[in-house]
Sequence to fold (441 residues):
Amino acid sequence: MNTPPNDRGLPGTNLDPWFNSYAQRTAGLSASEVRALFAVASRPEVVSLAGGMPYVSALPAELITSAMERVMRESGPMALQYGSGQGTMVLREHILDIMALEGISGSVDDVVTTTGSQQALDLVTKLFIDPGDVILAEAPSYVGAIGVFRSYQASVAHVAIDEHGLIPEALRETIARLRGEGRTIKFLYTIPNFHNPAGVTLTRERRAEVLEIARRNEILVLEDNPYGLLYFDEKPPEALRASDDDGVIYLGSFSKTLAPGFRVGWALAPHAIRDKLILAAESATLSPSSFSQLIIAEYLRTADWQGQIDTFRDVYRERRDAMLSALNEYLPHLSWTVPTGGFYIWLTLPHELDAKQMLPRAVKELVAYTPGTAFFADGRGRHAMRLSFCYPTPDRIREGIRRLATVINGELDLLQTFAGTGALDAARPDSHYASPPPDLD
Ligand SMILES: Cc1ncc(COP(=O)(O)O)c(C=O)c1O
Fold:
């Protein structure tokens, strides 16, 4: 339910005795569409193409159980104790080997282990953003990053992308426009590989160009790369960080290549930034979980972790193929991106359809997706949606797309039937729901 703002312009409710006490920055805190959808997605009858949950069942439990037993037998007190604020040395060394697969050579001193890469996003934003500062981000961008940026009162300026990722010319123009307006741009946030939510990958040529633009304009780059190792055919080009140690903060994660339940990610910071990052990390959590870090380090030392990533790749490739073939069969008149790795496809709807408005009807048909508006800070994205192929089985994906086609084609039929009569305009005074329908909340 929408409630009136309090006397400082913040949303809230008079039933909350602290209504007038919240900090201004809480105005940026709102439940994301993804979060609202998780409640629906958990119902077994709904095919959820909404969340980005990795298929952890493809990881043999025995591999983790045995690593855990060895850790507890051999270093139990250390695993149960506070650790270094920067993260456990033994894991940071393994992280260097993982990043080497993407062309990065860093120093173990510059790696900071965090509570998922989500925390690294939060810490970097905290370090750099004053209210009103600008963050450049792809259009669309990761919903969880937009939430963090909002919570620090940043202003997000979206930069256009196409099937080859961020468009350098659009980046140049956006920077020039913002600087012309006297705005302060603090960093460029980018997901170069198997983008969430767009599914696209930045080409090698554009990587060099984007870095050159950032360097020339003295803009820091925040490279977020949780999916880079989950390629289906060819490896993506080397990470941006591989060719710029000073201007790129690189974020990695064990969430997609191992399991998100450990909540372990990392940042590889430019040397000049890393001390502040460690201080910020210590003040946020004292230290990341020693228990999780030691189990992951033991797993990496003893298991065929690269073979396990191959298994994940096979699983996700098969699911991507299932989704693409179902889209071709059931929705051939629409367009979508063709990801070469990762978890996501971006589906563009005919202009007259609104993905957010259509969602309750989709849920009624027992399929869920994430409306495109979740991935923009400025209300765009109504005519698009993100489809995740990571979690449901290929059969369920196929059934989900079939149901989605029923909904989309039904809406199009309706529009055609009543075109020009005004009947639908009267039924839909506003093209947005003010709040999610009750069964999505
Ligand atoms: C692009 C991107 N960045 C960061 C994250 C956060 O991942 P985690 O905190 O689990 O490492 C996600 C999770 O979906 C993501 O898709």
The two ends are 10 Å apart (CA to CA). The chain has 13 helices and 14 strands.
